[in-house]
């Protein structure tokens, strides 16, 4: 699931900016970007993120910047760089007239890194900012989760509608096959009636092969389980993927057994909805 959280706070003369971002991924992949002096806080940051994220590629970045009035440069190094530029221009016969933009570029390249306080002093401030960012991060992911839930419930409704069509049509399949069989026999010049043992045996075998009672019952049960799971608290992603496999298995069996155009169309609709649900569930925790 996607998410974003940000927090800024002061630490002495420094401004700390902590950002958390996530994009969809089936597993949890955590990365950080921290000042080298504060890398010791990484484990605590990762533990806090794991409490709110189970899936996704999650990245936490922390930057420390000095206030504008506290910016400083290595003036000796900046002077040396400017003199080298001047000498380089003179060797090539170029009239060297530094612009404000050039001077800014030279001195900015020689900016001194802000001196960071020790980790013992910084860690409580960092973790407090992390909690604020995680709160925004979790809120955004919760809103996305609510939207995904509404979409998945709508698709479950479409699956139930298609299953209803199958249930309505299933009792008529054998009668339709019987009529078609007799019609083919008549066209072939074979006048057999419904009481003929061979006709009855063929119809009985067909009825047994295309009986969808068990598949429809299991499919309906799986749909109920899936909706209950979606409405439950806690992690649902992997459980949802398992139920989707079972749903797909029942739908495939119905399609292979039915031997009926109307049911085949309903099966195609169900497969399309299941594929869309499967794509969405890959993003759900």
Can you give a write-up of this model?
This protein has three domains: 3-69 and 121-137, Ribosomal Protein S5, domain 2 (2-Layer Sandwich), CATH 3.30.230; 73-109, no CATH class; 144-281, no CATH class. The protein is of the alpha+beta class. It has a four-stranded mixed β-sheet with strand order 1-2-4-3. The radius of gyration is 34 Å and the shape is elongated. It is 63% helix and 13% strand.
Total discrete domains: 3
Quote the beta fraction.
Answer: 5-15%
Quick one: overall form?
elongated
Query: Average pLDDT, to the nearest integer?
Result: 84
Give keywords:
single chain; 285 residues; alpha+beta; Ribosomal Protein S5, domain 2; 3 domains; 4-stranded mixed sheet; 8 helices; 13% strand
Summed up, what is this model?
63% of the residues lie in helices and 13% in strands. The protein is built from eight helices and four strands; from the N terminus they run βββαβααααααα.
In terms of topology, how is this protein built?
Elements: E1 3-11, E2 14-23, E3 28-33, H1 42-50, E4 56-66, H2 75-91, H3 100-109, H4 119-187, H5 197-209, H6 213-230, H7 237-258, H8 261-281
Parallel strand pairs: 3-4
Antiparallel strand pairs: 1-2, 2-4
